[in-house]
Amino acid sequence: MEELYKKLPQHTYSWLQGRATLYNCPKTGTTWQKALSFAILTREKFDHAAGSPLLTTLPHDCVRFLENLHLAKIKENPSDLPLLGTHLPYSSLPKSVIASNCKIVYIYRNIKDVIVSYYHFFREIVNLSEENAPFEEAFDDFCRGISIFGPYWDHILEYWKASQERPDRFLFLKYEDLKKDASSNVKRLAEFIECPFSVEEEKAGVLENIIKMCSFDSLSNLELNKSGMYQADEAFVLERRLFFRKAKDGDWENYFTDAMKEKIDKLIDEKMSGTGLLL
Ligand code: A3P
Questions:
Q1: Cβ count within 10 A of residue 248
Q2: Does the keyword Nucleotidyltransferase feature in the UniProt annotation (predicted)?
Q3: Least C-beta-crowded within 10 Å: which of 51, 87, 138, 275?
Q4: ipTM of the complex
Q5: Which tens digits make up the pLDDT trace of 142-185?
């Protein structure tokens, strides 16, 4: 990991000073979180009804990943927004990022739905049918902590513990809450990243328009997200549609056996009790 950090543009850490970064585990709502944050911060610059880059560019190209900034094929943050995303665990962040005082927005999601989303995403990337990629195996791997950025609970717990020391620096958003009450939670997000909505804006429907433009229905139905490709890495290109599957809460019920449910509930209990974060 240290080798990777050496390749990051030198100005990255100073650029992060006092700015916002978006953190999370894959499949917990990264794409949505990026779209909303980008729309909040650019609402004066772009007419969201027609001219937003979110209508012509995948959210991951509007807000870059910290871990990808060194890649030659990936240009630097296109709009020079005070915003970056990352899936890196807290303990793997460069010390200078931790010291940078950037604000941290952490999105998390019901772990059972994350497992199902993760399963389909990686199954499709390697082009395997459901028959050839048994869900049970994916489930067991996930429970053993075998996932791309490490065990889900370690990821969330590390950020949560850090937030106990510096609560002013962290905002935890729950995917399901964002769905249930988009207005309040998008307002919280906007306030936290220091770009709050004014009363006039709310009256004029700016908040509602942003929520609508960034909704699953809106983004997943854009032609560019249905058929285009995303350059995730120097050597890794994937279909944009893979970022938009169902976005349904409780899809796990179609996959989990009673034994799986019992196992994961026990794990969640063991790992997360006392945090107040319900997975
Ligand atoms: P499902 O696989 O359950 O459908 P990530 O963006 O972190 O990769 O997470 C992907 C999950 O978020 C997928 O969940 C995807 O469908 C869902 N998603 C993508 N865009 C969304 C949006 N605008 N609103 C709500 N959910 C969204």
A1: 14
A2: no
A3: 51
A4: 0.99
A5: 999 998 898 999 999 999 999 999 999 999 999 999 999 999 99
CA distance 89 to 104: 12
Q: Where are the alpha helices (DSSP H) in 126-273?
A: 135-143, 152-165, 175-180, 182-192, 199-203, 206-213, 216-220, 223-227, 258-272
**Residue ranges lining ligand 1, Cβ < 6 Å:** 26-32, 35, 113, 117, 120, 214-216, 219, 243-247, 251
Active site residue 70: no
Candidate from 55, 152, 216, 255 with most ligand 1 atoms within 8 A of CB, to mutate: 216
Q: Where are the beta strands (DSSP E) in the chain?
A: 20-24, 83-86, 103-108, 170-174, 229-231, 237-239
Task: Answer whether 205's CB lies under 8 Å from 219's CB.
Answer: no
Nearest alpha-carbon partner for 11 in 58, 77, 72: 77
- Work out whether strand 20-24 and strand 103-108 pair parallel, antiparallel, or are unpaired: parallel
Amino acid, res. 262: E
Alpha-carbon gap, residue 118 to 130, rounded angstroms:
13
* Residue whose entry in the numeric block shows the structure tokens 């990629």: 133
Helix, strand, or coil (residue 67): helix
Q: Residue 102 corresponds to which tokens in the numbers above?
A: 């950037």
Catalytic residue (one of 11, 60, 70, 87): 87
DSSP code, position 76: S
Identity (one letter) of the amino acid at 63? Answer: V
